[in-house]
């Protein structure tokens, strides 16, 4: 009749086995996330799945002066912006206030002499 080994002998054997083979010993079966840490990173393969997108601006930068290339979306966007300007719904002019005055950006300290005068 065969007798099963004691639980302490089995646990010590598993600890020794983990030490010999370089694996982690987890007697309580707690979740460690080792499966996910061992897995290959997905970012590089996902980025290389689709080819880089080609747009008209990139082509125009590479070869300026090719007059035949026209970006239909860019032309439509420019028309929409012009139409909104005519209706008075475009962006305000930079640096101008409602009264026509220039915006003045004040600094907290104009120069280093302000720090020296406080003494």
From TrEMBL:
Disordered: annotated span: 84-103
UniProt keyword Ribosomal protein, yes or no: yes
Pfam families: MRP-S33 (PF08293)
Subcellular location: Mitochondrion
InterPro entries named among the record's database cross-references: Ribosomal_mS33
Statement: the UniProt record of this protein carries the keyword Oxidoreductase: no
Record keywords: Mitochondrion, Ribonucleoprotein, Ribosomal protein
Any Gene Ontology CC annotation: ribosome
PANTHER family membership: MITOCHONDRIAL RIBOSOMAL PROTEIN S33, SMALL RIBOSOMAL SUBUNIT PROTEIN MS33
Family the UniProt entry places it in: Belongs to the mitochondrion-specific ribosomal protein mS33 family.
Annotated protein name in UniProt: Small ribosomal subunit protein mS33
